[in-house]
Specification:
- By secondary structure, this protein is of the alpha/beta class.
- It is built from ten helices and 15 strands.
- Helix content is 46%, strand content 23%.
- The strands form five sheets. A five-stranded mixed β-sheet has the order 11-10-12-9-13, sandwiched between helices. Strands 5-1-6 form a three-stranded parallel β-sheet.
- Strand 3 and strand 4 form a beta hairpin.
- The structure holds arginine (ARG).
- Arginine binds next to loops.
Length: 271
Amino acid sequence: MKWKQLLVGVMMILSATALVACGSSSTKKDNSLKKIQDKGTLTVALNPEFAPFEFKTLVNGKDTIVGADVELAKEIGKELGVKVKFSSMSFDNVLASVQSGKSDIAISGISVTKERQKVYDFSDDYYESVNVVLIRKSEADKYTSTSSFKNKQIAVQKGTIQETIAKNQLKGSKVLTLTQNGEMINELKSGKVDAVVLEEPIAKGYAEKNSDLTIAKKVTLKSSDADAYAIAMTKGSTSLKKKINKVIKKLKDSGKIDEYVQRAYEQSIKD
Ligand code: ARG
């Protein structure tokens, strides 16, 4: 009896020690928040040709990156008590920049997909949108369904979910992958491509600024993955993610995110 009690006691002590050991090693490993706070700077990777989320505009005569994602990043900087530095690059480099440690996080209208979740941690969603097809207004009657794009040239931005959406849903079309959104729009306007796949707020902005372009209203695309935007960070960034989610919740609950998007949209179509 005594031996049995002793054995149970020893086992309890052992498992408690193991738990403590686990706890301390995992907090030691997750220095995602501390690292940024020690540096005093949060480096954010983005591709600023994605109005209303991130785009360049002249502010007091100076080329400045603005948009809803920029506002969101600034709020995160405030919560963390650090400065925010924006690092511009093409979209297909945005996630890699987080992976290599050059940037702390990526905020770039990034859709959460299962594939991306295998490699990165994502914050809670902060915005939802659908995908649409942008076409020349003069051809609006031609496109009545996704099958109207057979043998047509479709442009999509490199590294985006629109690559897969165009390939899978606009059957029989030829998909051209370009690095810059501005280039896709120019190719569409000049007739080199017939359509561009984009998320709705972005397409709406281009249609508003280019009277020769419009959204194909009868064409509905399904979203293969979640059509929600979230912030990407390296795997295991638990402490950082917690802080970021706190900011997202606050801004979503107060309607601020929608306000940022609306304000940035108006600013972008004025330029
Ligand atoms: N939401 C799409 C994706 O995650 C497109 C994002 C493009 N963003 C940008 N800043 N160009 O693949």
